[in-house]
Specification:
Largest sheet: 5 strands, antiparallel
GO molecular function, one term: guanyl-nucleotide exchange factor activity
CATH architecture of one domain: Orthogonal Bundle
Radius of gyration: 29 Å
Shape: globular
Keywords: Guanine-nucleotide releasing factor
Organism: Grantiella picta
Protein name: RGL1 protein
Helix content: 25-40%
GO cellular component, one term: plasma membrane
CATH superfamily of one domain: Ras guanine-nucleotide exchange factors catalytic domain
Length: 730
C-alpha cells in the first residue's frame, strides 16, 4: 500500500471550564490509500491508482490550547498538554511563568496538589488505588520536572537555603528513589552550594574594584590602543559579549520583569541583562575615550583612531557580533564625536562608505526590518553574509571572511539585546496580564515566547564560537577611565571650537535621523538634565517620528546608572560638504520639558531606561476588568492610532521630567483614567488625580491642554509625536 496525507485545520471555537478557557482547533487529516501492486494493470501511472480505485479515509483530532486560566489550571495543564496535542505548552510556561508566579508557588502546586496521590483530584486518575494510574501521573510529573531542570535550572538557585530544590529532592527521594532524577537534583544542589553567589564576571566591568591591586583607571594611550590589531580587538569584544549573552536568563528580558528593576527592592533584579548592558556601555565609552582622551592628538591622528574603530566595527560584522557593532556605531554618532567636522573630513572616503553601510544595518525603517531579517538570517548560517555596494570594501570583506572560513570553525551570532527588550516591553504594554474573571492571560505568554525563543536560538548559536581570551587586551580594556558626558563634550569643544561646529551632515543624515527617532518604541526614555553642556533630549532616538518633520534629540551619556546603554541615530559624517548642521544648536526642547528637539543630529539610547515597560507585576487598572479575547492581530504602537488604541509616552513635569512611561490607551479612556495610570507608572499616589493636568507636547513652544473629562484618544493631535506631560496644577 502507498499513503499520502493532506492536513487541514479548522477553528473549533472555545471551551470554557471552571477556571480555564481553551482555544480548540480541529485537525482533519485526509489519508489516501492505494495498492501498489497491479496499479499499472488498472490504468495508473507509476504506482498511482485512478481516482475510482483510491481509498480515502479522514481522521479528525482535536487540539486544545489553554488561552487563560487560574494558576492552578495552568499548572495542571502541564500534565495534560501532551494529551491535548499542545506540544509547546511546557516550554512556553517554563519560559514565562515568572511574570505571574514564583517557582515556589508552581512547585508546591505541582508536587503537593498533583504529586500527592492521596489527595490528588487530577482528572486522569480515576482510581487512586490503581498502580497504573499512579505510574501515569508520576511519569507526567517526572516529564515536567525533567523539562524544568533542562530549560530553567536557574529557577532553583535560591541561596543560601535552596528551599525549592530541597523540596524537589525530598519528592524525588520518596517517589523516584535511586533514579537518575534524584542524582540530577542532588548534583544540581551541590553545584549551587559550591559556587559563589551569582555575580557578573569582572571583565565586563570598568569599576576600579575589578582591577588588580595597584592598578588605576587611566585614559587610553593612543599608541597602546593602536598596537592592537583590528581583528584582535573585535574578537576580544566578541568573546566578552558571547560570555555575557550566553548567561542571559531569558525571563529576565520579559517586560513585566525588566520594568520593575528601578524599584528600590529590585536593585538586584535581572542581573544577567544588566551585565550585558554594562558591557555595551563600556564599549561605547571606550570608543569615545580613545578618540577624545588625549588632548595632544593632531586632527589626522584622531581621524586615524576613528578609522580604526570603523575597521573594528567591520570585523565585528564579520564575526556576527551585532552588540559591539552597534555600540561602536553609537559612540561614533554621539554628540562629542559627531561634531568633530574637521576630524571627519580627514577620514578616507572608502572608510566613510563602510561606516555608512554598517550604520544602515540599524535603520529603523519598517520596525528595524533590515536588522531583524539579517539577525535571523545570520542566526542559522555558519558565517556572515556580507554585502557591500563599494567594490574595494567588498573585496576586503570577502578576504577577511575567507580567512574565517579557512579556520573551519562555525560562528555564532551575538544580537543587540535592546531589540528583544523593546519587543517584549511593547507586548507587555499592549496586552493585558489578566482577563475577565481574573484569569491569567496565557495568550500573552505565547506571544512573548515567540521573542524568548529567538533569544534561546541565538544563545545556542553562540556555542559555535571558538575564541580565546587575550589577557593583555582585556586588562587594557578594564583599565580605561571613561569620560563623563561633561568631560567628553568639553574635550570635544576644545578640540574643535564651537565656531567651527557648523557640521555638514552626510547625504544619509536626513532620512536616517528621521527613522531613528522611533527607536525603542513605547519604552521609558531617559533624558539628561537641562543644565548639561550639550543641550539634549531623549536618549536612544526616542523622541518619536512626526509626520511633518524629523524630531530627533541629541545627548551624551547618562551616568546615573551603570546599566544605561548609549544608542545613537544611524547617520554618518560621510562627505561632510553636503548639508549644514549645527550640533551646538540642538536643544532639550521647551522649558516645559517636552524632551523633543527639532533638527538635532545625534541621539543616544539607554537600554535600561529605554527598554523600560509598564509596571505590570501586579494587576493595575489595565490588567483587570477586560473582556477575554485573543491577542490582537496588530498590536498598538507608539505614534499611530489603530484599532481604537495606541501607545503614548507620559513624563512628569519637574523632578521626573526626564523619564517617560509608556501607556496603552483606547478610545474609551478619559483624562482621569490616563492620569491615574500615569501616576501609577511613576510610582506616585494614584488618588491624587485631581491635582494634575495632562498636556500633549505639540512643539517646542506649543502644548495641548486637555479639559478635565476629555477623551484622550479623540482629543489628542495625531499628527505630532504622542508625547505627554503630567503637570501639577498651579
Amino acid at each position: 500500500f502507498s499513503f499520502s496525507w493532506q492536513t487541514t485545520f479548522q477553528d473549533g471555537g472555545e471551551e470554557v471550564e471552571d477556571g480555564a478557557v481553551y482555544n480548540v482547533t480541529l485537525k482533519k487529516v485526509q489519508i489516501q490509500q492505494a495498492a501498489n501492486k497491479g496499479a499499472r494493470w488498472l490504468g495508473g501511472e507509476g504506482d498511482q491508482l485512478p481516482p475510482e480505485h483510491t481509498i480515502r479515509q479522514y481522521e479528525t483530532s482535536k487540539i486544545r490550547a489553554i488561552k487563560a486560566g487560574t494558576l492552578e489550571k495552568l499548572v495542571e495543564n502541564l500534565l495534560t498538554a501532551f494529551g491535548d496535542a499542545d506540544f509547546s505548552y511546557i516550554s512556553i510556561f517554563l519560559a514565562t511563568y515568572r511574570a505571574f508566579a514564583s517557582p515556589r508557588a508552581v512547585l508546591e502546586l505541582l508536587l503537593d496538589r498533583f504529586g500527592n496521590l492521596e489527595t490528588s483530584s487530577h482528572g486522569e486518575v480515576t482510581n487512586l488505588n490503581s498502580l497504573e494510574s499512579e505510574m501515569v501521573l508520576r511519569a507526567e510529573i517526572a516529564s515536567v520536572l525533567r523539562a524544568w531542570l533542562d530549560q530553567c535550572s536557574e529557577d532553583f538557585r535560591e541561596p543560601p537555603d535552596y528551599m525549592c530544590l530541597l523540596k524537589l529532592l525530598d519528592y524525588v527521594k520518596n517517589s523516584m528513589p535511586s533514579s537518575d532524577m534524584e542524582n540530577r537534583v542532588q548534583n544540581l544542589l551541590k553545584q549551587f552550594q559550591n559556587q559563589e553567589l551569582e555575580a557578573v564576571d569582572g571583565f565586563c566591568s570598568t569599576s576600579s574594584s575589578d582591577l588588580v591591586d595597584g592598578e588605576e583607571l587611566e585614559i587610553s594611550n593612543p599608541e597602546e590602543f593602536s598596537s592592537f590589531q583590528d581583528h584582535i580587538v573585535a574578537e576580544q569584544l566578541t568573546y566578552m559579549d558571547v560570555m555575557l549573552f550566553k548567561r542571559v536568563v531569558p525571563y529576565h528580558c520579559l517586560g513585566s520583569i525588566w520594568s520593575q528593576r528601578d524599584k528600590k527592592e529590585n536593585k538586584n533584579l535581572a542581573p544577567t541583562v544588566r551585565a550585558t548592558i554594562t558591557q555595551f556601555n563600556a564599549v561605547t565609552k571606550c570608543v569615545i575615550s580613545t578618540i577624545l582622551g588625549t588632548r595632544e592628538l593632531k586632527t589626522q591622528q584622531r581621524a586615524k583612531i576613528i578609522e580604526k574603530w570603523i575597521h573594528i566595527a567591520h570585523e565585528c560584522r564579520i564575526l556576527k557580533n551585532f552588540s559591539s557593532l552597534r555600540a561602536i556605531i553609537s559612540a561614533l554618532q554621539s554628540n562629542s564625536i559627531y561634531r568633530l567636522k574637521t576630524t571627519w573630513m580627514c577620514v578616507s572616503k572608502d572608510i566613510l562608505l563602510m561606516y555608512e553601510e554598517l550604520s544602515e544595518i540599524f535603520s529603523d525603517h519598517d520596525n528595524y526590518l533590515t536588522s531583524r531579517e539579517l539577525l535571523m538570517k545570520e542566526a542559522t548560517s555558519k558565517f556572515a553574509n556580507l554585502d557591500s555596494s563599494e567594490k574595494e570594501n567588498q573585496k576586503k570583506s570577502q578576504k577577511r571572511l575567507q580567512l574565517q572560513k579557512n579556520k573551519g570553525v562555525m560562528q555564532g551570532t551575538v544580537p543587540y539585546l535592546g531589540t528583544f527588550l523593546t519587543d517584549l516591553i511593547m507586548l507587555d504594554t499592549a496586552l493585558q496580564d489578566y482577563v475577565e474573571g481574573g484569569l491569567i492571560n496565557f495568550e500573552k505568554r505565547r506571544r512573548e515566547f515567540e521573542v524568548i525563543a529567538q533569544i534561546k536560538l541565538l544563545q545556542s548559536s553562540c556555542n559555535s564560537y571558538c575564541l580565546i581570551p587575550d589577557q593583555k587586551f582585556i586588562q587594557w580594556f578594564r583599565r580605561q577611565r571613561h569620560l563623563t558626558e561633561e568631560e567628553s563634550y568639553k574635550l570635544s569643544r576644545e578640540t574643535e571650537a564651537a565656531a567651527d561646529t557648523n557640521i555638514l551632515s552626510p547625504r544619509s543624515q536626513k532620512s536616517m535621523v528621521k527613522r531613528i527617532s522611533t527607536l525603542f518604541l513605547g519604552a521609558d526614555v531617559f533624558t539628561p538634565p537641562k543644565e548639561q553642556p550639550p543641550k539634549s533630549s531623549p536618549v536612544g532616538g526616542s523622541s518619536g517620528e512626526s509626520t511633518d518633520s524629523a524630531s530627533v534629540s541629541s545627548c551624551e551619556f547618562n551616568h546615573s546608572e551603570t546599566e544605561d546603554v548609549c544608542v545613537t541615530p544611524i547617520s554618518s559624517p560621510e562627505d561632510p560638504l553636503k548639508k549644514g548642521y549645527d550640533s551646538d544648536k540642538s536643544s532639550i526642547g521647551s522649558d516645559k520639558g517636552s524632551g523633543s528637539s527639532k533638527g538635532a543630529g545625534c541621539s543616544k539610547g539607554s537600554i535600561s531606561d529605554l527598554a523600560s515597560g509598564p509596571d505590570s507585576g501586579s494587576m493595575p487598572s489595565r490588567d483587570s476588568g477586560s473582556v477575554l479575547s485573543s491577542a490582537p492581530k496588530v498590536l498598538p504602537v507608539y505614534n499611530r492610532q489603530s484599532g481604537g488604541s495606541c501607545i503614548i509616552r507620559v513624563s512628569m513635569d519637574g523632578l521626573h521630567a526626564n523619564v517617560y512611561k509608556s501607556i496603552l490607551i483606547t478610545n474609551q479612556d478619559r483624562i482621569p483614567d490616563v492620569t491615574q495610570r500615569a501616576l501609577l507608572k511613576h510610582n506616585l499616589q494614584p488618588d491624587a488625580v485631581e491635582d494634575y493636568e495632562l498636556v500633549q507636547v505639540i512643539s517646542e513652544d506649543k502644548e495641548l491642554v486637555f479639559p478635565r473629562d476629555a477623551n484622550v484618544f479623540y482629543g489628542m493631535n495625531s499628527h505630532v509625536n504622542f508625547d505627554f506631560i503630567l503637570r501639577k496644577k498651579a
